[in-house]
Amino acid sequence: MRSTTTKAFAGVAVLALALAGCGSNSGSSTKSADSNAKLSYSINEQAATNLKDGGNLNLSIGEITPQLNMFQANMTVDTSTLWNWYNPQLIKFTPSGDMKLDKNYLESVNSELKDGKTVVTYKINDKAKFNDGTDLDWTAFQATWQANSGKEQEYNANTIDGYDQIDSVKAGDNAKTVVVSFVGPYPWYSSLFNNVLHPAVNSADIFNNGYTGGTLASAHPEWGAGPYALTGFDANAGVVTFERNPNWWGDKGKLDKITYTVRADVQAQVNAYKNGEADTVETSTSELLTQVTSVADTDIRRGTRAANYLLTMNSKSELLSDTAVRKAIATGINRAQLQQVLFQGLDYSEAIGGSLTLYPFQKGYQDNLSKVVAKTDTAAATKALEEAGYAKGSDGTYAKDGKALSLRLPLFSSSTEGHVPGLPDPDEGRRHRRADHPEVVEGLLHHGEEPGLRPADLGLGIN
Description:
Blueprint: E1 9-17, E2 56-61, H1 77-86, E3 91-93, E4 99-101, E5 106-114, E6 117-124, H2 138-148, E7 166-171, E8 177-182, H3 204-209, E9 228-234, E10 239-244, E11 257-262, H4 266-274, E12 280-283, H5 286-293, E13 299-309, E14 311-313, H6 323-332, H7 335-342, H8 369-372, H9 378-387, E15 391-392, E16 398-400, E17 403-404, E18 406-412, H10 426-436, E19 440-446, E20 460-462
Parallel strand pairs: 1-12, 1-13, 2-11, 18-19
Antiparallel strand pairs: 3-4, 5-6, 6-8, 7-8, 9-10, 10-11, 14-20, 15-16, 16-17
């Protein structure tokens, strides 16, 4: 059933587009943040006191992943979705990207530069405990660093970025104070320890295998903490439930129960919303949006997603080993046209990104892409290819030494619609590219690895 305490809504997922953009923290730039580039979000933020208590929230999820440890390499976004409901989230971020402490866990976070090295001191709330009664203290930070530092190869971590720059994690004046010292300056410390592991996750075997098994026990609700606890887990039925945590020391959660049900493809999620089986749904195409706008009590919310679409070019590919060729392709790509296709029918627009470090609406943003590719210019792209030794054939495709500039773009999709949700149909995208671009792009729809396909065979990738 839909929640009776809030209006159901269909969220339109719109993604920031930054094809081939690159980021920098240097002070020099040709452009700074566009004053018209504003963050778009419509969440109707309310104080907790304005919200009614009670109600059940029914949501869809793509899968219940076999690996439920969000720090492990086999995690997915669905892993994180479930993890965050029943595990401690010490640090969150405002829509504009500023760090926001959850004071139920952290009283303060302070950084300073000592002898050229960043030192960060975390003061943990004295009440903070895991569900099994274990104190949430410096040992949770130590276990998290140990697993993600990259120093012990047996830990199959999702990423070691940032953690590999830490020199030590120690207790301060007491166990509730953590002192994290880096090997040098590290201004991005706010990206670390947003989540922490239970100290019991103290070996590579537990880290890699302790959260697998597909049962409630293997999900380890006792190692969690927060306003909600994991109370139901049925991997076969594809249902996970969370209810108020009796061990929580902070303000009581507003909802009685949250239920996730596996619906593997976008259309199934839309159908569940239309049938009243799910209270929200994310739609990223005009077709899907049209299907939900007529559903009673639907509230459409549009907003910027904290993500980029990145078109990468494989420099190990024989065809793309020449920097001049890569720049020619980047110069010929019409990012504005791609964005127009992507947002078609969604009543949404945004500034085209030029950085992979900050978004256009964030303080300090710099458009670094324009330093390399100032604008779309197919004439300049064609000239650059010709200067690199390519010649135009009778079919309009450029070739060099008898080899056509034909690139392969793998498309990964789990949807029944046959294309990546949120991206234009591959065939439509190819039509746009061939209309004004001198190379051929072959789209390959992948549901798994293609036998015999080598990394060097793939010229392009969308991330």
